[in-house]
Design a protein that fits this description.
Elements lengths: L49 H4 L11 H9 L5 H5 L5 E2 L17 E15 L2 E9 L4 E7 L4 H4 L5 E9 L2 E9 L10 E2 L8 H11 L10 H7 L4 H9 L4 H31 L11 H9 L6 H14 L6 E6 L5 H14 L3 E5 L3 H18 L3 E4 L5 H6 L5 E4 L13 E6 L7 H8 L5 E6 L5 H7 L4 E5 L10 E6 L3 H13 L3 E5 L7 H17 L7 E4 L5 H12 L5 E4 L12 E6 L7 H8 L10 E6 L7 H12 L3 H12 L24 H14 L5 H9 L9
Parallel strand pairs: 4-6, 8-13, 8-14, 9-11, 9-12, 10-11, 12-13, 15-20, 16-18, 16-19, 17-18, 19-20
Antiparallel strand pairs: 1-7, 2-3, 2-5, 3-4, 5-6
This protein binds adenosine-5'-diphosphate and magnesium ion.
Length: 711
């Protein structure tokens, strides 16, 4: 057993093979996880400067241009990247046994010397066999399809192997030649790629592990939060002696990740609060009349959202509120209220939607109440004529696409901006809407985001939720139908059509261009028209239609000139036809959970019972996540619950719609598991927002170039 001066016991004595897992020089600095005070043991005087972590990977031994390229493909460009490359699991501990004591089908480790090697073929498999002896007996160890290993397994070579005794001898799962560590208990297993083995990655991480690492967290903070030193956390991540230790390390790195993010968000929040927006005072007469012209009562959730935004609008700090709500929950009604608040103050409101279809839809919704109220309203998209384009910015309320923020569009006096499906806009676009003026902004999203994620991604936004749709809606009934029973699904659909209802058929998702997708949809619509939908009036909606064509198509569907809309995912948002009561989604397993939930929201918008039929291949042919997605959709209509499920299935925060923000590329934090850690990080960030020095530098560095002022 190796010990190193005053450094802490390495604690590897428990290893069954009694071999030091690594050379002296690579000994970890302290291994005192959970203890935070650094005073007890002398720390090295020279911490590597942060730049050292930024050194390219090829400063490490064994990394030439070829390996460097391969690492790049894994996103590993610097020494620091390697250190933060997270193992996706650890090897379970196994006993080391004497070869004479080997039993079949038990995971163990053995150590011995190579006697001889041989190779042969067995069908498509190439088998390499080495006879290995430890003095008690010999065993034949087999490797498959790694013929190059023969050179390394020269007679007399000492090896340690993990695996189990099987039919063809000892099946090797991992092995070490010389001073390796792949067979150690809790050896990290890294995500490998086709061209670089997990073993190589493990070696390189080993070479990158530093003896010291700068640690920006104040000592008392680490003490209070029971967080280990960063360098210890990195060692624990890659060289844990137990799963518990690996978890303590992960948790520290997760904390760092969350803290940097929360500090950055806190800074953004503060900057924004320094801006000045027009204070709109209390609600006036116009919005009072608006409430009375609505053909329905506002729901409690709508009323609450309105009260929340009224409070924001009274202040001169620009509102930054996220309005989350199920598709069809009535967000647009709330949005129009916010816009009218600007109008009654003599100012303007703008509503920006991500697509022309959606902008047109909103315009139609908004136009009617506006005309009753004597409020002027205009539509502005990239297909608007020059004249419209010049006039639109003078209207009280302007609805449009990103054309709203194109150059030359000068608002008279913009006080309230609503951004619908805000995640579909790039950061730059959202920014441009508020650039140079600081209106109150209401962001809307129908992609429900779990509370934890909202805190993370939208940490600097206030959130209003409309989690219940208007009362007269019946929950959509969803069924999962195997492909071989799709005929039954279509006959169900025809029953609805025969009863005067309308329907959607969603085409299989093709992960290629919009053009390919459109062409495939055309083919599918033609096929359906000749088969399952013969005799019905079928329209086709896809992303390659011209705006005028799309407008006409939607108008015809709304007017019941068409029975069925065959569509790509372009109907995901915005289409509102209450008479459509059934939807078939083909190859539903190919869609994401959030996307399916959005699609489903196109039905169930009236008082009739609506249905969603998800067709997929047989259950046995699907991946486990696909099965979980489909089961979840059948089980619940609750978007927030589905969002939680989605988070679970994906493991991290890569929810549809938040991906672009880049904020959810959390490597170590698991938003559900680490909820309390997140909340601690958030609270601590408020205290550290002014901190200067290394922590602040790291915040700046982590978010350099990212501006999510309206994230
Ligand atoms: P969202 O924008 O959240 O998808 P919308 O605002 O488009 O939802 O509303 C969906 C439908 O529900 C619209 O036809 C709208 O007129 C109707 N609606 C909205 N609020 C109510 C309410 N309180 N009671 C009844 N129907 C409502
Ligand atoms: Mg809507």
């Amino acid at each position: 057993m190796t010990t190193v001066g005053v450094r802490l016991p390495l604690g590897f004595g428990g290893r069954p093979h009694g071999r030091s897992p690594r050379g002296l020089s690579a000994a970890p600095p302290s291994r005192r996880l959970g203890a935070a005070d650094a005073g007890e043991w002398p720390r090295p005087r020279t911490f590597p400067r942060a730049e050292e972590l930024e050194r390219p990977v090829d400063v490490l031994p064994g990394v030439g241009p070829a390996v460097k390229k391969k690492l790049e493909r894994l996103g590993l460009e610097t020494v620091g990247d390697l250190l933060l490359h997270r193992p996706f699991r650890y090897e379970e501990p196994v006993p080391e046994v004497r070869i004479a004591d080997l039993q079949a089908d038990v995971d163990v480790a053995i150590a011995g010397d190579v006697l001889t090697t041989s190779t042969r073929r067995r069908g498509r498999l190439q088998m390499l066999t080495a006879r290995i002896s430890d003095g008690t007996a010999t065993v034949s160890a087999t490797w498959f399809n790694q013929p190059w290993l023969e050179r390394q397994l020269q007679p007399g070579t000492a090896v340690r192997i993990r695996g189990r005794q099987g039919r063809y001898g000892f099946d090797v799962r991992s092995f070490d030649i010389g001073e390796g560590e792949a067979t150690a208990d809790f050896a990290p297993v890294y995500p490998a790629s086709e061209d670089i083995t997990a073993k190589k990655v493990r070696e390189l991480v080993g070479a990158a592990l530093p003896r010291a690492l700068s640690d920006p967290l104040p000592a008392d903070l680490k003490q209070n939060e029971a967080l280990p030193e960063r360098v210890d956390a990195v060692w624990a991540l890659h060289r844990p002696r137990s799963l518990g230790e690996a978890e303590v390390g992960r948790r520290r790195l997760a904390f760092d990740e969350l803290l940097l993010l929360q500090i950055w968000l806190a800074r953004r929040r503060r900057e924004r609060e320094a801006e000045v927006a027009p204070a709109l005072g209390p609600p006036g007469e116009l919005v009072g009349r608006y409430r009375s012209v609505l053909p329905f009562q506002l729901t409690e959730h709508q009323k609450r959202a309105i009260a929340e935004l009224d409070a924001d609008l009274e202040r001169s700090v620009p509102m930054q509120r996220l309005l989350q709500g199920e598709v069809g929950s009535g967000k647009t009604v709330v949005a129009l209220y916010a816009l009218l608040r600007a109008v009654e103050a003599g100012k303007q409101g703008a509503l920006m939607a991500p697509t022309e279809t959606l902008a047109e839809q909103h315009f139609l919704t908004v136009e009617e109440p506006c005309s009753l109220l004597g409020v002027t309203c205009a539509l502005l998209t990239s297909s608007s004529a020059k004249r419209e384009r010049d006039l639109a910015p003078h209207a009280d309320i302007v609805v449009g696409t990103h054309a709203l923020i194109q150059e030359g569009v000068e608002f008279r006096d913009l006080a309230v901006a609503v951004v619908d499906e805000q995640h579909r806009f790039g950061v730059e676009q959202r920014k441009a809407l508020t650039e140079g003026r600081s209106p109150h902004v209401l962001h809307m999203t129908a992609t429900p985001i779990p509370r934890t994620l909202a805190l993370t991604v939208y940490g600097d936004l206030a959130v209003s939720e409309i989690s219940r749709p208007p009362a007269d809606r019946k929950p959509i009934k969803t069924a999962w139908v195997a492909e071989d029973r799709s005929a039954a699904a279509y006959s169900r659909l025809r029953k609805h059509l025969d009863a005067g209802r309308q329907a959607y058929v969603v085409c299989p998702l093709i992960e290629e261009s919009e053009t390919t997708q459109a062409r495939a949809a055309e083919v599918e619509a033609e096929r359906l028209q000749k088969a399952e939908l013969r005799g019905y009036r079928v329209g086709l909606l896809h992303g390659r239609l011209r705006p005028s064509e799309r407008r006409e198509l939607m108008a015809r569907f709304k007017a019941r000139d068409l029975d069925v809309l065959v569509a790509t995912t372009v109907i995901e948002v915005g289409v509102d036809v209450p008479n459509a009561t059934i939807m078939i989604v083909q190859e539903a397993d190919r869609f994401g959970l959030a996307q399916l939930h959005q699609l489903r929201g196109r039905v169930g918008r009236g008082a009739e019972q609506s249905y969603c039929l998800l067709i997929s291949r047989a259950r046995e042919d699907l991946t486990e996540p696909a099965v979980e997605r489909l089961e979840a959709l059948v089980r619940t209509n609750d978007g927030f619950e589905l969002a939680e499920v989605d988070l679970d299935i994906r493991g991290s925060g890569q929810l549809l719609g938040t991906r672009q923000s880049g904020l959810t590329d959390l490597r170590f934090a698991h938003l559900r598991k680490d909820r309390s850690l997140l909340e601690r990080a958030r609270a601590i960030a408020d205290e550290l927002v002014d901190a200067e020095g290394p922590l602040s530098d790291e915040v700046e560095q982590a978010f350099a170039g990212r501006d999510l002022s309206a994230a």
